[in-house]
Task: inverse folding
């Protein structure tokens, strides 16, 4: 189960490019509902704070899967992460994770790695992934599926659909301005999990 409940918890190896600024929404916040089998099982929230050439990105993931009827949580996942960017390059990243009671903590310094919080559209150019929970590198390939209209809490948005495959399998959609508007993937049990923009 845990394998499909942390879709946004890896880092993609690629130098940050011009899309960095384009991927930051005007509101400085992206908030998603995590949906599985038609149920809202959590939240994924990204906030941005710019100061000159510096950018701080904070990410908060909270997921709980409950047993139907009795409502008891059988799986919980929580992660808090902070990315520090300077002049378009990752200067530091820290992350603490509670994976159903198993604690993890990672702290990285300046790196050419692009964290796969998935908000940065530059990930579509990546060919390898570094998991921010265990630090392992994963190989991926990315292809464009096409252009689609994606439903969000603010209505339908024109977006480009990309499919990530390999050691990490995710479908991601980016609006024409470069902001992330949806993430989707299949769980281990075959169920569909969606990150839907509020």
Result:
């Amino acid at each position: 189960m845990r394998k499909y409940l942390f879709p946004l918890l890896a880092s993609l190896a690629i130098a940050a490019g011009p899309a960095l600024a384009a991927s930051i929404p005007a509101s400085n916040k992206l908030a998603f509902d995590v949906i599985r089998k038609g149920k809202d099982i959590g939240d994924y929230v990204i906030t941005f704070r710019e100061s000159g050439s510096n950018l701080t990105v904070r990410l908060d993931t909270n997921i709980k899967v409950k047993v139907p009827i009795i409502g008891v949580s059988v799986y919980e996942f929580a992660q808090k992460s902070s990315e520090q960017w300077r002049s378009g390059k990752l200067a530091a990243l820290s992350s603490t994770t509670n994976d159903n009671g198993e604690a993890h903590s990672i702290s990285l310094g300046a790196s050419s790695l692009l964290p796969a919080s998935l908000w940065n559209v530059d990930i579509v150019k990546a060919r390898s992934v570094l998991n921010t929970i265990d630090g392992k590198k994963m190989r991926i390939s990315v292809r464009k599926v096409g252009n689609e209209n994606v439903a969000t809490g603010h209505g339908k948005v024109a977006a480009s659909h990309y499919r990530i495959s390999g050691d990490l399998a995710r479908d991601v959609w980016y609006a024409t301005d470069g902001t992330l508007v949806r993430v989707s993937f299949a769980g281990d049990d075959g169920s569909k999990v969606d990150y839907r923009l509020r």
